[in-house]
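Listing S7. Sequence submitted for prediction.
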Amino acid sequence: MELYVIRHGQTTWNEKGLLQGSIDIELNESGREVAGKMGEKLEDTPFDVIFSSPLIRAYETACLIRGHRNIPIIRDERLREICFGDLEGKNYREIFMEGSPYITFFTDPSKYPAPPGGETFYQVIERMGEFYKEVLLPAAKKYERIMVVAHGNANKGLIFNLENNTDVKTYWGPGLQKNGEADIFVFNGESWMRKPGTVPAVDEKWGRL
């Protein structure tokens, strides 16, 4: 069984370097192009079901990748991006800078202090773990190929659970997914193995939260 974990396409806030988190920001034209390109790449790859974050940037990405194929898209609240609380809408360069208490977001997630109204990495790991156990794992035993379309941090939370990780310091692994990028995992019925490399929609580097 194969699992494709895909990050949504680019938004205007990605382009400006603004923290989106739980704010519902739609794709920009570049983001729609990226999602469409990924759809073209995966056009001949059959999927049984797509699970999506309910936020429009992820759901629209899922719809564009699906195209005209008859694949159900199921939105799940637990696939939402990490909530940045009072930091949402602020420039990430100003938040994750030297001397800021939030710089640990990338350098040591285990010490990241949730801003007022925001979430810790531990909370994201917990809700992504619930999604994994209650939804994804049963589906993985039923279907041949599944797609999950969510967000940069949320996807890492899911992968953290897939790989049965316990060290939050290593949360980011090989790094943040680019917009429209896919990581592929194979499930043998007991454990998950990551396929080498990633599947980019296009060659450009979109990046950013």
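Caption to Listing S7: primary sequence and predicted structure tokens for the chain studied. The helical segments are 12-16, 29-41, 56-66, 92-95, 104-107, 121-140, 152-162. The chain is about 35% helix and 15% strand.
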